[in-house]
Amino acid sequence: MDDDRHSRDRGRENGDDRGARIRRKNILLAVVLALVALGFYLFALFGGTV
After folding, report:
1. Is residue 14 helix, strand or coil?
2. CA torsion 18→23→29→31, rounded to 10°?
3. Which site in 5, 23, 32, 47 is 20 to 30 Å from 41, CA atoms measured?
């Protein structure tokens, strides 16, 4: 219980930085996944026609 409380307090102190970093990483991951999905879609589209 004490560990949770301490980590929560510590997260509140520099939670903004960590949250922004995680959010940026998630956005980057989403963009990469979107590009990969688009690449697979285009490959399937043109791979099937050619």
Report:
1. coil
2. -150
3. 23
Which residues span the domain enclosing 17?
Answer: 2-49
How many residues are present in the chain?
A: 50
Report the domain count for the chain. 1
Long-range contacts of 20-23 (CB under 8 A, 24+ apart): none
Structure tokens at 39: 């690449």
Q: Which residues have a Cβ under 8 Å from the Cβ of 11 and sit 6 or more positions away?
A: 18
How far apart, in whole angstroms, are the C-alpha atoms of residue 11 and residue 46?
48
DSSP conformational letter for 27: H
* Separation of alpha carbons 34 and 50, rounded Å: 24
